Structure formats: structure tokens, C-alpha cells
């Protein structure tokens, strides 16, 4: 079976950690990741969702997001006490986007010097370590910034509102925070995958060129390779019978009653029916790619409008 994603497996000797929650690997990884994306400071957490929640928790405003988006984002907006306004954009998928003012959601993109190239030293850029994301782990997330006060605030809020100290009894409780800190295992896995990211991205770029040439697209995401078909669910079933796993990224969210938003977004609604993600990972062989192309061309319409 040709898989949609590839998730690296590791054997971890936890006896080598001084602490399952706050081993030195957590700090080492934060520094390595910040350096990779060109930021001065970083704070890891148990998930990117937790960091998004913290980023939005004090705004009390209306936040505009694409309707074609993972449901975690509108959920966080509502649960953090804000309101949603959806807009009709499907081209952002697989990349980063501006969530609100200087808050950047980059759950689907990690590139070298990405933060530095963004050009705003006060920006808060949030990344995900969900297993299938560019830098995978057993979930987790990280926020980077050149503003030390911002990162210190995230660190305090993710650690139950306490200033960090190696000794639990030396931690000063200064705010009503949350239990959202990353674990040593999450940091270890993400750190191992970060070491492989440049090589992974090089291979993904090679595969993307082959796919683009075969299908006539100009896709540039290193997380997803999407094409449009007449009926994505039927296409997925037929591809699975050929031994190829595909997926849908993503269905629209704007018509869910619990988001309390009223409006029609025709592009997003059409995309929910037509968009499909093909297998796209660094472990695909040339033969795998040929099989994906052959069956996609046979089963899909090639619509790109």
C-alpha cells in the first residue's frame, strides 16, 4: 500500500532522560528549532492548538479565517472567547497564513530562515508537531519570536502560570496558567525529525516537480500535494482499491451551526467536494510515484479551475 504520509519510528530509551517532562532535550530542541527558522527565542508546548489558544485568549474580537481549514482552528477561536468570520480562500492550504495581526499559523510549513524572512521581529509564529506535519512528533507545537517577553509569557502560561526552575519547589507561581508544556519525548522525536528536514524537503521538491509536470499544476507546498477531481470521496475509494491511500484537506467549516456564522462561500464549498491529497512524502520511490500518476490520470478528470 502506498501511504498518504510517512511517519518515522524511533526506539526511545527513556531511562536516559533526567526528567520525562523537562529533560534538557526540551531546551536543546527549542534552541535548534529557533535557529533553523531564524528566530531568537522559542517555547514548546503539548500542541500547536494550545499555543493558538493562548495567542487568542485575551483578544475578545472577531477573527477572520479561511473556511477550508482544519476544524481545530475555528474551535480554538470560539473556545478562546472570540468570534469567527470566514472568507473564501483555498490557496493557502499546505502553507502558513496570518491568523490575526502578527500571529502566524504555520502548522503546515517549516522552512529554513522562515521567521527571519518574514521580517517582523514582533511576530508570533506557531508550528505544529502533529505526526504527519513537516516536523512530526507525538503531537506538540512551538511558538517562536524575536521578542523575549512574548516567549517568556508563553513559557509561564504553559507551565501552570509558574516561572520555570529545575526544582519544582523553586518555581514561582505568578498567574493562572495552564498545563500545556511539551514533554521530553515530544521534544526528542521532533528534534530527530528536524535533523532530517532539509533532506526531506529536497526529496519533496523533486516529487513535486514530477507531479506538476504530470498533472499540469504549479503546487509549491511541501506538506500536501492536492489535485481536483469530480468526486473526492469516490476517487479515494477507487485509489484505495489500487493500493494507494489519498486524503481530503480540507472540508469547509463555515456552515456549521455552532460557529454562528451565516454566509455562502462557493469556492470553499466546491473545494470540499473536489480537492484530494495524493501520497506525498520523502519515502516514495520512483515506482510509487509512477503508480500514483498512472491511476490518478485514469480516475481523475484533471479539473483545475
Notes on the structure:
The protein is built from 10 helices and 9 strands. It starts with 23 loop residues before the first helix and ends in a 6-residue tail after the last helix. It has 2 domains: 14-195, 3-Layer(aba) Sandwich (Aspartate Aminotransferase, domain 2), CATH 3.40.640.10; 198-299, Aspartate Aminotransferase, domain 1. Helix 1 (24-37) packs parallel to helix 6 and helix 2 (48-56) runs parallel beside helix 3 (72-79). By secondary structure, the protein is of the alpha/beta class. A hairpin with a 2-residue loop joins strand 4 and strand 5.
Output the structural class: alpha/beta
**What is the second-level CATH architecture of the largest domain?**
3-Layer(aba) Sandwich
Mean pLDDT: 95
Strand order of the largest sheet: 1-7-6-5-4
The CATH topology of the largest domain corresponds to Aspartate Aminotransferase, domain 2
**Large-scale geometry:** globular
Strand percentage: 5-15%
List the topology elements.
Elements: H1 24-37, E1 41-45, H2 48-56, E2 62-66, H3 72-79, E3 83-87, E4 97-100, E5 103-105, H4 114-118, E6 124-128, E7 141-145, H5 148-158, H6 184-195, H7 197-215, E8 225-228, H8 232-241, H9 266-274, E9 275-278, H10 286-299
Parallel strand pairs: 2-3, 5-6
Antiparallel strand pairs: 1-7, 4-5, 6-7, 8-9
Amino acid at each position: 500500500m502506498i501511504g498518504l504520509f510517512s511517519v518515522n519510528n524511533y526506539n526511545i530509551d527513556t531511562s536516559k532522560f533526567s526528567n520525562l517532562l523537562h529533560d534538557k532535550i526540551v531546551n536543546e530542541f527549542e534552541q535548534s528549532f529557533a535557529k533553523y527558522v531564524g528566530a531568537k527565542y522559542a517555547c514548546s508546548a503539548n500542541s500547536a492548538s494550545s499555543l493558538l489558544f493562548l495567542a487568542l485568549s485575551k483578544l475578545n474580537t472577531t477573527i477572520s479565517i479561511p473556511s477550508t481549514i482544519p476544524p481545530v482552528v475555528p474551535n480554538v477561536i470560539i473556545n478562546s472567547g472570540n468570534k469567527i468570520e470566514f472568507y473564501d480562500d483555498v490557496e493557502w492550504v499546505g502553507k502558513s497564513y496570518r491568523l490575526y495581526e502578527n500571529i502566524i499559523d504555520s502548522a503546515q510549513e517549516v522552512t529554513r530562515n522562515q521567521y527571519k524572512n518574514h521580517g517582523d521581529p514582533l511576530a508570533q509564529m506557531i508550528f505544529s508537531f502533529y505526526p504527519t506535519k513537516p516536523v512530526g512528533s507525538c503531537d506538540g507545537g512551538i511558538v517562536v519570536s524575536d521578542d523575549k517577553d512574548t516567549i517568556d509569557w508563553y513559557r509561564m502560561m504553559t507551565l501552570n502560570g509558574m516561572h520555570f526552575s529545575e526544582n519544582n519547589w523553586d518555581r514561582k507561581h505568578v498567574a493562572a496558567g495552564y498545563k500545556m508544556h511539551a514533554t521530553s519525548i515530544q521534544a526528542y522525536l521532533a528534534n530527530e525529525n528536524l535533523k532530517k528536514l532539509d533532506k526531506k524537503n529536497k526529496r519533496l521538491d523533486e516529487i513535486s516537480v514530477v507531479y506538476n509536470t504530470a498533472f499540469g499544476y504549479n503546487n509549491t507546498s511541501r506538506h500536501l500535494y492536492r489535485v481536483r477531481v469530480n468526486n473526492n470521496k469516490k476517487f479515494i475509494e477507487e485509489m484505495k482499491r489500487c493500493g494507494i491511500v489519498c486524503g481530503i484537506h480540507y472540508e469547509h467549516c463555515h456552515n456549521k451551526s455552532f460557529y454562528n456564522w451565516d454566509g455562502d462561500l462557493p469556492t470553499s464549498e466546491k473545494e470540499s467536494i473536489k480537492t484530494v491529497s495524493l501520497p506525498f512524502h520523502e519515502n516514495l520511490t520512483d515506482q510509487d510515484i509512477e503508480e500514483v500518476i498512472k491511476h490518478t490520470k485514469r480516475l481523475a478528470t484533471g479539473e483545475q479551475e
